[in-house]
Amino acid sequence: MATIGSAIGPTAWAAIDAFEFNTPAQEQQYRTLIEELRCPKCQNQNIADSNAPLAADLRQKVYEMIQAGRDNTEIKDYMVQRYGDFVTYRPPLKPLTWPLWFGPLGSVVIVGIILGLWIRRRSRQIEPAMLSEAEQARLANLLEDDQSTNKANATDGNSAGANLMGEIPAKENS
């Protein structure tokens, strides 16, 4: 039985926050705030969904501040002052938070510029291969010989195209 208890893990036995509120409005305020505040440790979870001890402490602090009569702005300001703008999922637009707001777009633009310059430079480096006059004459002779061979095979009844397809011409019995 002890083995099963240890296999389930401590998260199964973790305490669930059970706060009592004076009014339904306070409970709604609490739910709204814990959904909007990000766990500084987990970074991609709000404090409502995080099981981190820090998130539990933040939920407790939000509860205490609501019980003390603080409004959402005061509670968020306290959290931002203590943990920085990162603690809110919607940080305010100010010079300090510009990287949070414009960083992803800036990264895409920079990668696009670099890719465009690379493609442009690469296309300039690739020059089409030009044949010399001797090579052009040799190519013309090869093409002419090939055309005359195809015409000769066509008149003999032996199609060059059939040979290219892997068919074996029938042997003539002499």
DSSP helix fraction: 55-70%
CATH superfamily of the domain at 15-95: Cytochrome C biogenesis protein
CATH A-level architecture of the domain at 15-95: Orthogonal Bundle
CA-CA gap between termini: 95 Å
Strand content: under 5%
Report the principal-axis shape: rod-shaped
The biggest sheet, with number of strands, parallel, antiparallel or mixed sense and barrel status, is: none
Could you tell me the CATH topology label of the domain at 15-95: Helicase, Ruva Protein, domain 3
Query: Number of DSSP strands?
Result: 0
What is the CATH top level name of the domain at 15-95? Mainly Alpha
Description:
9% of the residues are buried. Residues 6-15 have low confidence and may be disordered. It is rod-shaped, with a radius of gyration of 38 Å. It is built from 7 helices and no strands. The protein is an all-alpha fold and 174 residues long. Helix 2 (24-36) packs antiparallel against helix 3. It has a domain at 15-95: Helicase, Ruva Protein, domain 3, CATH 1.10.8.640.
What key phrases describe this protein's structure?
single chain; 174 residues; mainly alpha; Helicase, Ruva Protein, domain 3; 60% helix; rod-shaped
